[in-house]
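User: quick one, fold this
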Amino acid sequence: MTAAVIVSLRVKATPMETFEVFTQEIGIWWRPNGLFQLTPRGDGQLRFEVGEGGRLVTDLSNGHTFEIGRISVWQPGERLSFSWRQGTFAPDQTTYVDVRFEAVGDDETRVSVAHRGWDTIPQEHAARHGFPLQPFQMRQAEHWRALLAALAALIAVKH
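Assistant:
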C-alpha cells in the first residue's frame, strides 16, 4: 500500500480548535460528492465516536447506520487516523486516512490529510469508476481539498 492522496490547508484556529471542529462537527462541514459517495444511498450524516477504537459512521435517511471506519489514533490537537471503507467495498478492502494538525504561528493550523490504500482497490471497482490510479487520485484530492475548504469556512464563521 503505497499510493496516497495528500492535501493540506491552513485554517485560522489553533490545532485543538481545528481538531474539535473536524471531529465534532463533521456532519456540518462534510460535503457529499456524487463521484465519491460513501454508500449507494448517499453520504448521510457523518459523526465520529470519540477516542481510539471509536468509529466514523454515517446515519442514513432510511434509519440505518453505516460504519465507514475505526479510529486507530486519537490525539486531540495533533493527529487523527482511521480506516475508511465505502459501502461498495468487499470485506477485505479498506483504505486509511491520517489527519495531522500542525500549529503555524500563534493562530493558524495546517491540516494535512493523507488518504492511503487506493492502489489496493481495483480500477474496475465502482468506487474507482474505472479511472486509472493517477487520475483517480487527482479527483480524490480535489474532493479532499473541497472538504478542507468547507472545514475552513466553518471555522471562519465561528471566529
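User: anything notable?
Assistant: The helical segments are 15-24, 26-29, 133-158.
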